[in-house]
Amino acid sequence: MSSSTSNLTTFGAVLFDLDGVVIDTTELHYRVWDEFARERGYVPTREQLLATNGRRAGETLRAWFGAELDDEQVAALTDDRERAFHRLLDHEPVSAVPGVGAYLMALKHAGVPWALGTSALARNAERALERVGLEHLFPVRVTSTDVTRGKPDPEVYLKAAAALGVSARVCVVFEDAVAGLRAARAAGAACVAVATSFPRDVLLRERPDWLVKDFRDLPRALRPGGHGLTAPTAPPP
Length: 237
Known about the structure:
It contains nine helices and six strands, in the order βαααααβαβαβαβαβ. It is α/β, with parallel strands linked by helices. α9 links the parallel β5 and β6.
């Protein structure tokens, strides 16, 4: 089931979050954060784990372990946390979010550009995409390595749109997290909430333009060749 509150009718590009939108790794991230924190004497609640979704690692680390952590300490802790996640990612079964591969191919055939805009580190994004065989379909990527402010700040989506040579205001963003939906809104983009990580009622409170289960559940306006999603009239500069 999907719902739409958008008055927009034409989009020039599509921007994707990674975890929970392209690859179904959300629960792996929660598991790693939980184990990582407990090993260091901090016991996060489920709500705190949910809040890590879409947030840069350093922001979570300072929220949990103290705002006084300096950049060197944050970098070391982030590296430890990423190594733990990579161990799980390398050995646990993971899959792409249903329908995303076919959707990307449909965008390609229709000439609609797209990019990745994620809070993950660049190496994390590369490894995740490789695990589901989609790395070749995301040549344009903006990761936490490329921004100074994490979601809900719009920087990642503004830069992703710029990398495609379009304004964020003609983009539609696929997001599974509250912080990501707020970033998309702040960038001026339309947004699709993908209900893989947060309860539907939580996502609806963010007033997304659409709410979908996955990429098999898209309204006509979001399908390439539909009335709302068309290739740009001229190639990006």
